[in-house]
Inverse folding.
């Protein structure tokens, strides 16, 4: 298959490449020289979107250096700022005690950056004060520290409340949703709760946790910490891997590339966020772009029966 350059899709106010690289358990697992090469190659392969987060709060209280290492590699790469898109992350675990302004300032300073293009407001346990949250994010936009924002696996009621609060106050509301989405997990992105917001263009989709912590890329349950198992369906997902691998082989790609291609067939998908700590992974994943361009409908049809979360709530509640 050829390797076309995909047209940019809109993630809120900015156009983004179809592939996006995460920072959780990635940059801190690479040799510094490999990290530099990864950034340069990502820009070449339609993956010049970097999600940069400081993992040291709530369930991610890891005091990770992955964001610092990314910043060092970015500066060493020589890649120009206007060649990439940078996405930050705000956490709700200790907000508003730790303000968004303080969080963003710390994140930018750690990575050696001046601003983010967009940001994601993370998930939560306790119900957030949505009106205040929208106002606090808009202060960052007004300061020029970021252009837009999205939500991460929020309950649909809070997402709609944020939209309403923004409209009432003449403010910028969330323009995209970063949701768990992939071959096995489809409930939120395709269900009745978020579906209307994607269908009418209110939100665009950023697919994340596509491989279920690597399970659908390798067939192995990783020993490291991975994302939450919403609905308790991980064993069911693991059992799907042989069929995913068989279908991927039929298309001449890796299971990971197949999973990315599936996500990009969603009409509202702006890009797919995944982790890669080896150049080979990135290059193999890039094959997803040609696959979806040439066989998108066939991919969708081949994987139609592999949803594992049909009985899981589609509104973001656990």
């Amino acid at each position: 298959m050829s390797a076309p350059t995909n047209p940019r899709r809109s993630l809120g106010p900015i156009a983004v490449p179809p592939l996006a690289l995460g920072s959780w358990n990635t940059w801190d697992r690479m040799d510094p020289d490999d990290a530099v090469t990864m950034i340069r190659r990502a820009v070449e392969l339609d993956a010049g979107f970097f999600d940069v987060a400081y993992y040291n709060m709530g369930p991610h209280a890891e005091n990770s250096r992955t964001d610092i290492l990314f910043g060092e590699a970015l500066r060493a790469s020589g890649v120009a700022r206007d060649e990439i898109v940078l996405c930050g992350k705000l956490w709700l675990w200790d907000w508003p005690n730790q303000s968004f302004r303080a969080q963003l300032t710390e994140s930018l300073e750690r990575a050696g950056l001046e601003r983010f293009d967009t940001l994601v407001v993370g998930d939560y346990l306790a119900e957030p004060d949505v009106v205040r949250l929208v106002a606090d994010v808009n202060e960052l936009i007004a300061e020029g520290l970021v252009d837009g924002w999205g939500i991460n696996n929020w309950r649909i009621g809070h997402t709609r409340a944020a939209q309403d609060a923004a409209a009432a106050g003449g403010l910028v509301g969330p323009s995209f949703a970063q949701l768990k989405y992939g071959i096995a997990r489809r409930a939120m992105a395709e269900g009745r709760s978020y579906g209307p917001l994607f269908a009418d263009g209110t939100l665009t989709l950023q697919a994340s946790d596509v491989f279920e912590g690597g399970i659908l890329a390798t067939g192995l349950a990783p020993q490291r910490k991975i994302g939450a198992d919403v609905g308790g369906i991980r064993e069911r997902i693991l059992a799907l891997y042989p069929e995913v691998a068989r279908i991927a082989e039929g298309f001449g790609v890796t299971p990971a590339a197949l999973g990315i291609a599936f996500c990009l067939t969603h009409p509202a998908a702006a890009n797919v966020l995944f982790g890669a700590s080896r150049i080979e992974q990135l290059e193999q994943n890039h094959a997803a772009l040609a696959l979806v361009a040439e066989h998108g409908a066939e991919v969708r049809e081949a994987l139609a029966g592999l949803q594992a979360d049909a009985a899981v709530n589609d509104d973001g509640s656990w």
User: Anything to note?
Assistant: The first helix runs from residue 32 to 44.
